[in-house]
Amino acid sequence: DDDDDIPQLSSHTLAALQEFYLEQQQREGMKTSQGFNQYSIGSIEEDWQLSQFWYSDETASCLANEALVAAGKGGRIACVSAPSVYQKLKERDGKDFSVCILEYDRRFSVYGEEFVFYDYNHPLKLPENLLPHSFDIVVADPPYLSEECLQKTSETIKYLTKGKILLCTGAVMEEQAAKHLGVKICKFIPKHSRNLANEFRCYVNYASGLD
Length: 211
Hints:
By secondary structure, the chain is of the alpha/beta class. Helices cover 33% and strands 18% of the residues.
């Protein structure tokens, strides 16, 4: 019988697949029925191959609040590889601050002119309109826990910021963060929507509300 040659999925695999498709349909349905907010965290799903792990809603709100206070009225905020903070800032629909997102993932180009394609391997390959020292604060979350990644991202941060830096990275990077950016660890413990194996921390180089 020719049917014998057709590979069959086990009942367990089939059930898991059906569950996956159902969840996907439900997510799409929620997006449509709730007047979907393109800036909500999770509107663009994590891509683990790009080392993406979104902050929890509470952490993103806390970091967004901190960035707003640090930037001041009319301030400019740059989010480098930190889309969760960018999305939370955009939810505010604020008129008294501006924000842009520097990201390698081109899915974030849906955010229009505020999106800047960014590859940390080319830290100063930036558009001409991103002038040096033109942001009141830079919020950055380098994608990889390596000194090379932190060092290169640091070049970008130092180019963009007028002075204030809010860095989010692993606790193991404390020494390198101090070396490359002069930042100190905060008491605030950032959380992710999915638990990470590595302990994560925030670092700043100014008197912040995160202590």
